Amino acid sequence: MAGERxxxxxxxxxxxxxxxxxxxxxxxxxxxxxxxxxxxxxxxxGEAHAVLLDIRLPGMSGFDVCRxxxxxxxxxxxxxxxxxxxxxxxxxxxxxxxxxxVVKPFSVREVITxxxxxxxxxxxxxxxxxxxxxxxxxxxxxxxxxxxxFREGRxxxxxxTEFRLLKHLIANAERPISREAxxxxxxxxxxxxxxxxxxxxxxxxxxxxxxxDPAAPRHILTARxxxxxxxx
Length: 232
Ligand code: CA
Prior knowledge:
Blueprint: E1 5-9, H1 13-25, E2 29-33, H2 36-44, E3 50-54, H3 62-71, E4 78-82, H4 85-93, E5 100-103, H5 108-127, E6 134-137, E7 140-143, E8 148-151, E9 154-156, H6 160-171, E10 177-178, H7 179-187, H8 193-210, E11 220-223, E12 227-230
Parallel strand pairs: 1-2, 1-3, 3-4, 4-5
Antiparallel strand pairs: 6-7, 7-8, 8-9, 10-12, 11-12
Helix pairs in contact: 2-3, 6-7, 6-8, 7-8
Bound molecules: calcium ion.
Calcium ion binds near residues 54 and 57.
């Protein structure tokens, strides 16, 4: 993947400028916000591939933002930016769901190295989907090499999670797949009840983006009592 959108949550403009400048220079697409509420809004829209999250923010702290993102089922990589060593103990000890951290003052090179590692870990499987060419299902067309999806010839902007979900549905076309199996395929671990509901939300988004009439889907079908089924 290229041009991943990186959400930078940082209230110090000088630090934010340094990060966004370096991210752009490395081919990323930084999105800068200076508070936790806005960070949550951007993440909820599925617009970010990863988050660089400062801990000391006005209002909602980075700890709270991280916890809230995980509570809402948002699984994008989160790297905490911490000003003090004693905050590191909290990041590690509180089981916030953060993936990594860097201590200020940091070098932007180090941040980007850590970021790349997290992106590889989170999306590596997607990036490796090469050599499969294009596939068409009615008005939907998937370019597996370039990880692009089109509807009636127009590009559709899917989040990495939506793309993974669609890929798994298509790979098992015509077979009903349980919510649990979808959670495991998309996130790689067994589910709980909240994860099941998360799948429903992602399915709804996929239908809104891909189906002509999301209320009467022709491809992404509900398998009653089980989960979902893709109909080519
Ligand atoms: Ca700060």
